Amino acid sequence: MYPFKTTQSYPRNQWYIAAFSHEVSRTPMERTLLDEPVVLYRTGAGAAVAVAGRCPHRRFPMVRAAVVGDALQCGYHGWTFDCSGACTRIPSQEQYVPAGFKLRTYPLVEKWQWLWIWMGDPTLADTSLIPDHAALHLENSAWQASIGGVEPLAGRFQLMNENVLDLTHVTFVHAATIGTSGIAAAPIEVEDRGRYLHSQRTVAEPNPTPFHTRVLGLDGPVERVLSTDFYPPAFLSSGSSFYEAGASGQPGGRLFGEFRVFHIATPETPVTSHYFWGFTRSFGQGDEELTEQLRAGWRLGVLEDIDAIEANERMIDRGPLQHDLSAQADAGPLRGRRMVEDMILAERGTELLSSALR
Ligand code: FES
Ligand SMILES: [Fe+2]
12 C-alpha vs ligand 1 centroid, how far in Å? Predict the structure, then answer.
């Protein structure tokens, strides 16, 4: 499925962000992830749990279940499932609950202020595959990390990946907010760092944007290093470091500050996503007014990206099939695309192999 050369839309045996921690409470909430309804809730001790959104009895929505202790009691015929998914009660036959009766559960890991879910084969859910939150400056006392929000996105997740992997668009899509004219023309370096893909460019900004001037306290021309780190299948950390003009890469060069904005489009369906975003900064720690200014400023950028991606999505299947043309600046998006495609193909290979062995 576009833009992949596979019929499948996304890999399943990977970690995805399912929700922010604050969204999940003792009251069940439903979210469609990878085309499956999932229900999230917390036990009395506060542990987050993810279960299938349909009752295995007659497919009633589990979001309408009652939380009884740590268990869910289906709102239709009262079957009850503990937080490991085991059926513990069938009201019409109290003495006999077949041992194999289960509600599907999903591996879930709470880190920083969000929940990572594994939608595929649970035996493959290796938590060491979750990006290192210290390296992301999410669990780093020298940086202050904040939640942005979660927005509906009427576009396929890979469009978000490729949007952030080529910051050329910042000059055009974000002309009124966080972009300057020189970004599009700056040469880009792309580096495969194993677990993630790094792309970077350095731009002289004789006139930084009013937003950056205000939040970073800039007082003249700067050199801005923009970079994106892509952790496939769907996690992007993109940000800028602002140096005194001519000082980037120089020992002792004055650094005004650095920030990263996180962009995660988790597939909802093959063509829609949940867009989670957040940010972390190296400056103005503890200044909550500044946090609000940053959130409001970046939200404008987030809305500009949503508008561009949704407009793009609407055109994908219109007109006769066409091969896209690519330029040098597409090196990052194309490599990122291959990383995700390889994940899809690798798991299809495993599936074919296991069905052949059956
Ligand atoms: S549908 Fe859930 S108990 Fe019947
Ligand atoms: Fe953008």
Answer: 27
Q: Quote the pTM value.
A: 0.96
How far is it, in rounded angstroms, from Cα 266 to Cα 286? 30
Beta-bridge partners for 105: 51
CA-79 nearest atom, ligand 1? 3
Distance, CA 55 to ligand 1 centroid (Å)? 6
Token pair in block for residue 302: 């987030």
The answer to whether residues 64 and 165 belong to one domain is no
Q: Residue 80: which CATH number? A: 2.102.10.10
Helix segments in the chain, DSSP class H: 157-165, 169-173, 210-216, 288-315, 331-357
Cβ of residue 74 lying under 6 Å from some atom of ligand 1: yes
The answer to whether the beta carbons of residues 188 and 203 sit under 8 Å apart is no
The CATH number that applies at residue 256 is 3.90.380.10
pLDDT in tens, 55-99: 999 999 999 999 999 999 999 999 999 999 999 999 999 899 999
